[in-house]
Design a protein that fits this description.
It is globular and about 60 Å long. By secondary structure, it is of the alpha/beta class. It starts with 11 loop residues before the first helix and ends in a 7-residue tail after the last strand. Helix 3 packs antiparallel against helix 9. 34% of the residues lie in helices and 24% in strands. The chain has a 9-stranded mixed β-sheet, with helices on both faces. A 3-stranded antiparallel β-sheet has the order 8-9-12. It has one domain: Rossmann fold (3-Layer(aba) Sandwich). The longest helix has 21 residues. The protein binds S-adenosylmethionine. S-adenosylmethionine binds next to helix 3. The site of S-adenosylmethionine (SAM) has 20 residues, from helix 3.
Length: 357
C-alpha cells in the first residue's frame, strides 16, 4: 500500500513534556467541568496524533479516542444495546455485586470514572457507596466534552448532596489532574482498557497507581478471550451500527482537521487476531483515493482495498492481567466474572510499594 505524508511534527517526548506543564482550563459553561487543554492546544495535539498515526506502518491508523464526538458517543450507546454486543449487559449484570464488594473492601468516599461516556454505570457504584454511608465526591473523566456536558448536570441533579466534577482529558496522559488519592475508587469500565495497546497498559497502571493512596482501588471491566464467532459477531452487528460508529472517525477528521474523507467510500472491517488476542477494526477504501488532511498537514494515498486501523479491543485472561500488573504499584485482589466467563470486573488495590519506572 502506498501512503504519502508531508511534513513532520515534534517527537512524542517533546509533546509529553509540554502536556505536563499544561494547566486545567475551566469552561465558561459549567465551572465543575474542566478541560486539560484550551481549544488551540487540543487542536495542535489532535493534529500531531493524527499525523503520527497516518504515518504508522505497516498500516496507517487513527487513535480510537477520535470516534467520540457527540454522534460517536450516541452511536456507542446504541452499540451497547445491540443483541450481539454481550459486553455491556454482562458487565451490568456483574456490577451491583462487584460494586458492593469493592466498596466494602476499599471503603471509598471519592469515586472517579475514567471513560465515563454518557455516565450510566456510575449510578450503580454511587448507589453502593451511598448504601455504605460513604459517598462524598464523584469525578467523571472523558475525552468527550459533549458526553461530559450531558452527563455531569444530570448526575448533579440526581444527587444534590454529592460534590460532582468532570475533567475533559486523556486517561493515557492526564491522570495527574486528579491529584493525590486517599479513600478513592477509580472505575474503568466497558472494556475501554481493551483499546489501549498491551505495551502501554503497564504505563497506564503506573499512572493510575500514582493517583491512588495505599489501599485505594481500581475497578476495571475486561472482555475475556473466547470463541472467534462470538467475538466477531459483537463487532459486526446485523444493523450496521458498529460500521457507522467506525466510519464516524472519518467524519470527526473532516470536522476537526478539515479532511476530505468520503466516509461512505470506506467499508467496515472487524476481525479477531487470536495471536494478539484482540479484535481489530479497520476501514477499507472501496476504491483508490487521495485524502487531504490539512489540519494535520498530511495527505493519505490509498489504493482500492487499502486499509486504516481504527481500533484494537484486547481480550484478556486473568494470568495476562496479572502479568501486566507486575511492578506497577497495583495488585489484583478480586476477579468477578459470569458463569460463561464472557467478561470480568477486576478489583485492583494500590500496594505500599512504589511502582517501578
Ligand atoms: C468504550 S466507551 C465506554 C463508555 C462507558 N464507560 C461504558 O462502559 O459504556 C469508551 C469511553 O472512553 C472515552 N475515551 C476513549 N479514549 C479515551 C482517552 N484516551 N481518554 C479519555 N477518555 C477516552 C470515550 O469518549 C468513551 O466515552
Amino acid at each position: 500500500m502506498k501512503t504519502f505524508l508531508r511534513s513532520t511534527y515534534s517527537s512524542q517526548s517533546d509533546r509529553a513534556e509540554s502536556s505536563k506543564s499544561l494547566m486545567l482550563t475551566q469552561t465558561a459553561r459549567d465551572p465543575a467541568l474542566r478541560r486539560m487543554r484550551s481549544e488551540a492546544q487540543e487542536r495542535a495535539l489532535t493534529a500531531a496524533e493524527v499525523h503520527a498515526g497516518l504515518l504508522a506502518r505497516p498500516l496507517p491508523c487513527l487513535p480510537s479516542k477520535f470516534f467520540y464526538d457527540h454522534r460517536g458517543s450516541v452511536l456507542f450507546d446504541r452499540i451497547t444495546r445491540l443483541p450481539e454486543y454481550y459486553l455491556t449487559r454482562t458487565e451490568e449484570a456483574l456490577l451491583p455485586e462487584a460494586a458492593r464488594d469493592a466498596v466494602a473492601r476499599v471503603g471509598p468516599r471519592h469515586l472517579v470514572e475514567l471513560g465515563s461516556g454518557l455516565g450510566t454505570k456510575v449510578r450503580t457504584l454511587l448507589g453502593a457507596m451511598s448504601t455504605a454511608g460513604l459517598l462524598d465526591s464523584c469525578t467523571l473523566f472523558d475525552v468527550s466534552e459533549p458526553a461530559l456536558a450531558q452527563s455531569l448536570p444530570r448526575l448533579a441533579a440526581e444527587r444534590p448532596g454529592l460534590r460532582t466534577s468532570a475533567i475533559v482529558g486523556d486517561f493515557l496522559t492526564d491522570l495527574g489532574a486528579l491529584g493525590p488519592g486517599g479513600s478513592r475508587l477509580i472505575a474503568f469500565l466497558g472494556s475501554t482498557i481493551g483499546n489501549i495497546h498491551p505495551r502501554d497498559v503497564p504505563g497506564f497502571f503506573r499512572s493510575a497507581a500514582s493517583v491512588l493512596a495505599e489501599g485505594d482501588g481500581l475497578l476495571v471491566g475486561l472482555d475475556l478471550v473466547k470463541d472467534r464467532a462470538r467475538l466477531e459477531a459483537a463487532y459486526n452487528d446485523a444493523q450496521g451500527v458498529t460500521a457507522e460508529f467506525n466510519r464516524n472517525i472519518l467524519r470527526v477528521m473532516n470536522a476537526r482537521l478539515g479532511a476530505d474523507f468520503d466516509p461512505e467510500a470506506f467499508e467496515h472491517v472487524a476481525f479477531y487476531d487470536a495471536e494478539a488476542a484482540w479484535i481489530e477494526m479497520r476501514l477499507r477504501a472501496a476504491r483508490a483515493c487521495r485524502v487531504r488532511v490539512p489540519g494535520a498537514e498530511a495527505e493519505l494515498v490509498l489504493p482500492g482495498g487499502g486499509e486504516i486501523r481504527t481500533e484494537i479491543s484486547c481480550k484478556y485472561t486473568r494470568p495476562a492481567v496479572e502479568a501486566l500488573l507486575a511492578a506497577t504499584g497495583l495488585r489484583l485482589e478480586e476477579w468477578y466474572t459470569d458463569a460463561d466467563a464472557l467478561f470480568a470486573l477486576a478489583l485492583m488495590r494500590r500496594t505500599a510499594e512504589r511502582s517501578a519506572g
